[in-house]
Design goal:
The chain is α/β, with parallel strands linked by helices. The chain is built from 18 helices and nine strands. A hairpin with a 2-residue loop joins strand 5 (142-143) and strand 6. Mean pLDDT is 77; it is low at 1-9 and 325-395. It binds iron/sulfur cluster (2 copies) and FE3-S4 cluster (F3S). One iron/sulfur cluster (SF4) is lined by residues 239-240, 243, 245-246, 249, 268-270, 274, 276-277, 296, 302.
């Protein structure tokens, strides 16, 4: 277990020497770089390059704005059961301005933001959580007397790149759900003249945040993105295709009520509303709280929180999706349930076929998941967002 000591990081000190002073060994640091390469979907050959880029790093500046949001994203990123090197990397680069975590408040905090953006113009990373209210001239969220929109626009001017962290910053989330009284929009609706990466989820996974920042620091550019601006390394696979309960789905073994025998046996949650078949996210792999659990692992259906408009398109959360029919190839849950004897064989074929179908669909569909109302026929189901950017070349 890592036991970092609190040591201040001076401006001209490298990250490697700072971590050493905090009790992190070279071996642990290299292991961390290997983990980051794996998270980014790169080969192990990329690890030395990541290590070499990070160890010479000199206090990169990150400004973190919190707009119209619930602070859950901040909690997700900073709360772990033990400090990791990832926490330390985020910790040491992210505190130039963060109004929940920083000691300064009021005018002193505003001055810190102004000083940071002035002294690091063109170089700092801007992280944003929360949506931007646009109705009534944006008065629904103000910081230091300025609207969230004007603070965002001003701060983004000097940023090298922008990370929109969480569903609120990605597309507006619950505030933007119908009827969207504040006119909430995501960051990329406001900032259009520089790269914005959407780290989707409510909240997103801390490892994805760390890996995106590590990628930026190593290669001096953001990772490859899908059509919705999400990093491909994290959001290119469906939850349904990575889910440990998939064998139960394929075998037609479903939870029908949260306290039934199927629930006790850990069966598939499709019948109680799981949106995993329509959701792209690495939740089953990375998980939360030092990889101890995730929603489906805890017995709760996925509500599709990494998909744009999920409050409108994935609700009612506890109603099952319309049957996910793969043009006559992927069996529906009902067919599978009625054909247990053939379940395993059908499931293997269905899984492979479904993956192919979704990859093919992904190349042809733009942007967000669109699910029909619960009463709509299955044919109305549309595949989730497309992947349009090129493969990783970094390793
Ligand atoms: Fe809160 Fe979810 Fe918005 Fe993050 S994305 S600020 S957890 S509502
Ligand atoms: Fe897992 Fe949900 Fe798919 Fe069942 S429907 S296999 S619980 S993702
Ligand atoms: Fe969200 Fe579903 Fe993962 S609800 S956290 S995308 S399991």
């Amino acid at each position: 277990m890592l036991t970092p000591q609190p040591v201040a990081w001076s401006a001209d000190e490298s990250l490697a020497s700072h971590l050493e002073q905090r009790g992190i060994s070279r071996r642990q640091f290299v292991e961390f770089c290997g983990q980051m390469a794996a998270v980014l979907g790169l080969s192990s050959l990329a690890a030395p390059r990541i290590a070499s880029a990070l160890e010479t790093l000199k206090r990169p500046s990150v400004v973190w704005l919190q707009l119209q949001e619930c602070t859950g994203c901040v909690e997700s990123v900073i709360r772990t059961s033990e400090p990791t090197i990832g926490d330390l990397v985020l910790d040491v680069i992210s505190l130039d301005y963060q109004h929940t975590l920083m000691a300064a408040a009021g005018a002193a905090a505003e001055k810190a933001l102004a000083d940071t953006t002035k002294h690091n113009a063109g170089k700092y990373l801007l992280v944003v959580t929360g949506s931007v209210p646009t109705n009534a001239h944006g008065i629904y969220t103000t910081i230091g007397g300025k609207t969230a929109r004007s603070v965002l626009e001003e701060t983004a001017k000097g940023a090298a790149a922008v990370i929109a962290l969480g569903a609120c910053a990605h597309w507006g989330s619950v505030q933007a759900s119908k009827p969207n009284p504040t006119g909430a929009v995501g960051v990329s609706e406001i900032i259009r003249d520089k790269p914005v990466v959407n780290i989707a989820g409510c909240p997103p996974i801390a490892d994805v945040v760390t890996a995106t920042i590590v990628h930026y620091l190593t290669y001096n550019r953001l990772p490859a993105l899908d059509a919705d601006g999400r990093p491909r390394f994290a959001y290119q696979n469906r939850i349904h295709d990575q889910c440990p309960k998939r064998a139960h789905y394929d075998a037609g073994q479903f939870v029908r009520a949260f306290d039934d025998d199927g629930a006790r046996k850990g069966y598939c949650l499709y019948e109680v509303g799981c949106k995993g078949p329509a959701t792209f996210s690495p939740c089953p792999i990375f998980m939360w709280n030092s990889r101890t659990s995730w929603p489906i692992g805890a017995g709760h259906p996925c509500i599709g929180c990494t998909e744009r408009n999920f409050w409108d398109t994935m609700t009612p959360f506890y109603n099952r999706l319309p049957n996910v029919v793969g043009v006559g190839v992927e069996h529906t849950a009902d067919v599978l349930g009625a054909s247990l004897a053939l379940g395993a064989l059908a499931g293997v074929g269905a899984h492979a076929a479904a993956t192919g179908i979704y990859q093919i669909r992904s190349r042809h569909h733009a942007r967000s998941t669109q699910l029909p109302p619960a009463s709509a026929p299955p044919e109305a189901y549309k595949a989730p967002s497309a992947v349009t950017t090129s493969q990783h070349k970094e390793d």
